[in-house]
Amino acid sequence: MTSVHEAPAAASVPDPGAGPRPPVLLPPVKPMAWTMLSRALSVPLILGLVCFLPAVIAAQPGSGVRDNAYWLQLVLTCYAGARLATMILSTRRRLLQGVFWMFVYIAMGVAPFAQAVIGQTPTPMVGPRSDLVTAVSLILVGCAAFDLGALLASRRPLTRRPGTADGKGPATAHRIRLRLLVLLAFAASGYYVVKLGGPAIFFSSRQEISASVAVSGVAATESNVGSAFLKGFGTVPALLALLFYTRRLVTSHRARRSPSAVLVWTALMALNLVVNNPISNARYWFLTVLVSLLFTAFPSSSAMYRSVLATGVVGALVLFPYADRFRYDDEGYRPVQSASAFEPLATKDYDQTVMFANTISWVDTRGHTYGRQLAGTGLFFVPRAVWSGKPEDTGVRVGQWMGMNMTNLSAPLWTEFWVDFGPAGMVGGLALIGYGAARTDRRYALAVLRDGPGSVLAVAAPLIAGYTFILLRGPLLQSAGKLAIAALCLLLVTSFRRNRPRPR
């Protein structure tokens, strides 16, 4: 008799003449209790994200105009809410797609809709109202392109890596190279701490950190490459080493019984509490640290996956606008004064939609750059002293054109594609991203079950999921440094050698 956890007998008949096949691990059957619970939660969750929250925002007092931009923003909010609810209620853990729709729902759905109702934006819009209508329409088209790419990826079967024929296995962390990564993490983070004046400054404010970096001499007035490498190597290897050792301790009984592994994990956790704490780092980077650590520590927990997506919406709407408490010191900090719970959404942080509209106005006056901005992102490591015409961040260039004193403005991914390649490039780029995200999510689900404690993809996918917040918010030039350092660290530890049993 076949149990509920086994495949049917007909599906396991070997192909005559074919070599031995690796066993395929089936995902566990969903318990009946969770089936009933998901059905009970589906209706209020969908109604809450798609209907209730937009209706509450629409009822807020404000001077917003109920024009085409307003109704398109409402459609975008409901569409993103429905897709986010689908991700939360899905029986599969779709890390990258879930984070994508959570960002779109919050930063490009709910927050801009509140701005449309209240009649106020965190960044002024310098162009005509029609550019805002165009921006919201293009965001909708980009979301549909992302869904189309994900749909195409789901229709294509995953190709298996060759097995015993060529001796290669899945990407796993080489034990000796992983120890080298740990040494690199302690050396780079230690240099970072010493260069800035000791651990105490990491618990003061980001303003003090920036001042210490300027005094240290690694940052030049005409280039930020030195400071970017200092911060990147001081934080990224420490986080990746912690994620690899967390993966080992969570999935391996042998590692949990090893005092050396536990000791190294404890030391790495203490190191990350210094260099990757929420006081000395930007909020989006701390979100990367938190999300990647949770997804790595709970690799098979559907409850944790759903909790991150569901509570992330509440935290982004309620806590995130107030989470910049440590950006400035006590003298420079100005608390938010608001009469409505939704007013901070219209006055702080969430400027993605209005900046897309401003970028459309900027492109109308200057023209498309035809890959120049993305070339600057790919060659981020080249100093401006060597490349005098190196492009600046897209948000900085648009902010300077607007005449803004503070040019640390967002440039969402839609904007980056639009500036370089226009509508066709934007649609194609987001379709490729949707395709890659869906494929990565499927491979990650197999890697968690099949590849063992040293799986590289089981660590890289949670890190990319957390870093998606930074990539989607933009500008890409600011986010390229840490992403490249993470790729170098992963290349350092990755091995495709299949483990063979040791001779007795």
From the N-terminal CA to the C-terminal CA, the straight-line distance is 38 Å
- Please give the share of residues in helix: 55-70%
Low-confidence stretches: 1-37, 162-166, 500-504
What count of helical segments does DSSP give?
Answer: 18
What structural class do helix, strand and pairing data support?
mainly alpha
General form: globular
Strand content: under 5%
Strand order of the largest sheet: 1-2
* SSE series: HHHHEHHHHHHHHHHHHHHE
- Characterize the biggest β-sheet: 2 strands, antiparallel
* Average pLDDT number: 82
How many distinct beta strands?
A: 2
Oligomer: single chain
Radius of gyration: 24 Å
Task: Report what the structure shows.
This protein has 504 residues and is mostly helical. 64% of the residues lie in helices and 2% in strands. It is built from 18 helices and 2 strands. Strands 1-2 form a two-stranded antiparallel ribbon. The protein is globular and about 65 Å long. The relative contact order is 0.15. Mean pLDDT is 82; it is low at 1-37, 162-166 and 500-504.
